[in-house]
Design goal:
Helix content is about 30%, strand content about 25%. It is of the alpha/beta class and about 500 residues long.
């Protein structure tokens, strides 16, 4: 077969990413060569491909669902917010500049050719390409420059399925209203709907499904039940609440290990925490209150797109005082990428904040200078005697000063009970993670022993299988096959605004 499908949503976090991944996993189980695609992604969660391109982590997750290696073509445009009104534009895996929202939307139309070329490349390589939209296709104020929703669908002749989140309420109004706001040309591509995150008896929902079909002339292709505890890669911070460890006793030690993650501005690559959440006996909470650090065995400063801005935020809330007291008492702190940079003595930033030289937290004997070119890589090394594979994405270049109390830690350093590294994903390496947590527990005085058989890669694979099961068991897969092969149906009625 050969074909494509676009998964849109009534709003952000409706479930587009997981539905796209689920369709990819369902198709690859059928022996179909499939690839994911998202023309334009706005996210601070990104990763580096094997050939050194930066793309959104959601597309990396979807490529894993499709059992293929991710490439730059799967996410040709990545926007990384740097503030309320501007974003770094990453084009085909390389940062090309910082633009305001207004300036970017003025340039979107010229990017459509690049987007279509990438889609054509993927379609030539694979039997099926499953595309993911962004936000809502009914953002009528942006339709003239759209390259990711119906702008893409109309240019490439794609059928569109709209996902609605029933858990938020108002799903029928959202699905109907999304369709009714579209032009006749755009409506011709909306083939039907999927209802996501349903709890309860589907039989009670069926009259509403019948009414929606009668009003729109379009079917609901499935009602997908709520899946708890997915913890898979997301585009933004909307899924932070689900990234917490259950407070259960560890199977080997006597105590749990408590981790507090600082939820500071422009939080990026918070997927680094997922391996800690997956570890039995580890509890994780994200916090914006310094008092929550008091009872934590480990405090993590994660990545951030704005290190200097994050430092301002820490100081405004007295986190700097709490962290300094913690370091002085020899209580564990881990900084990753932007978090590692924040631990430095000084930061010279003419790139992100353009503030020049500012003081860091001074908890590690390091200095940071932001370079105009971004470092992208997939480094390998050892930690605690175990192999570590990771990835790095940063402008900040860290120099470690000579200090007799400082030792190497991955590419970074350790002083006392404070660790820092630029490497993302290091904790996904099972043996290294267990050794690190054992060291943290010993320093913290906790009787915690990591489980010896936890395999993060296997857990993630099982989650992707859950998504494939979700589509296979609860969606009309025969109808999805027909859409993928044949494109939008020819007999879809136009629904004028304000109907019926």
């Amino acid at each position: 077969m050969s074909g494509a499908l676009l998964v849109a949503g009534t709003h952000s976090d409706a479930g587009k990413s997981v539905v796209t991944a689920g369709i990819c996993r369902w198709l690859v189980r059928q022996g179909v060569s499939v690839a994911p695609f998202k023309a334009q992604n706005m996210s601070l969660n990104s990763m580096v491909t094997a050939d050194g391109a930066e793309i959104g982590r959601a597309q990396v997750m979807q490529a894993a669902a499709a059992r293929i290696e991710p490439t730059a073509e799967m996410n040709p445009v990545l926007l990384k917010p740097g503030g309320e009104r501007s974003s770094q534009v990453v084009l085909l895996g390389r940062a090309v500049g910082e633009l305001s929202a207004a300036r970017y939307h003025g340039k979107q139309a010229v990017l459509l050719d690049t987007v279509l070329d990438c889609l054509a490349t993927l379609r030539a390589r694979h039997d099926v390409v499953v595309c993911e939209g962004a936000g809502s296709p009914a953002e009528i104020n942006l339709r003239h420059s759209d390259i990711v929703n119906l702008g893409l669908a109309t240019a490439a002749g794609l059928p569109v399925v709209v996902v609605g989140d029933i858990d938020r309420g108002g799903v029928f109004a959202s699905l109907y209203g999304t369709l009714a706001l579209l032009s006749p040309t755009d409506q011709r591509h909306i083939a039907g709907f999927l209802i996501n995150r349903f709890r309860g008896d589907v039989g009670l929902l069926e009259p509403g499904l019948d009414m929606l079909r009668g009003l729109t002339g379009r079917p609901v292709y499935g009602v997908l039940p709520m899946l708890q505890g997915l913890g898979i890669d997301e585009e933004d911070g909307l899924g932070l609440a689900s990234r917490t460890g259950a407070p259960t006793a560890p199977p080997h030690g006597e105590e749990v290990l408590r981790v507090a993650v600082v939820a500071w501005p422009l939080l990026s690559n918070f997927t680094d925490i997922d391996a800690l959440v997956a570890e039995p006996g580890v509890t994780v909470r994200f916090t914006d209150r310094p008092e929550d650090l008091a009872d934590a065995d480990l405090v993590v400063l994660p990545g951030t797109r704005g290190t200097v801005r994050a430092l301002d935020w820490l100081r405004e809330r007295s986190f700097d005082t709490a962290l300094a007291a913690r370091a002085a008492a020899g209580r564990p702190i881990l900084g990753v990428c932007g978090g590692y940079q924040a631990l430095a003595r000084t930061i010279d930033d003419p790139v992100e904040s353009r503030r020049g030289r500012v003081p860091g937290l001074g908890l590690l004997p390091t200095r940071v200078r932001f370079a105009p070119d971004k470092t992208l890589g997939r480094p390998e090394g050892t930690g605690y005697g175990h192999p570590v594979r990771a990835y790095e994405i940063h402008h900040g270049v860290v120099t470690v000063d000579d200090d007799p109390d400082t030792t190497a830690f991955l590419d970074g350093c350790r002083t006392g009970a404070t660790w820092g590294t630029t490497w993302h994903g290091a904790l996904e390496n099972d043996a290294f993670r267990r050794a690190f947590l054992s060291d943290v527990a010993a320093v913290a005085g906790r009787r915690f022993v990591p489980a010896p058989d936890t395999c993060f890669a296997a857990l993630r694979e099982a989650q992707l299988d859950r998504l494939g099961d979700l589509i296979e068991r609860h969606a009309d897969t025969d109808a999805l096959w027909r859409l993928i092969e044949n494109g939008p149906p020819d007999d879809l009625p136009f629904i004028p605004p304000g109907a019926p």
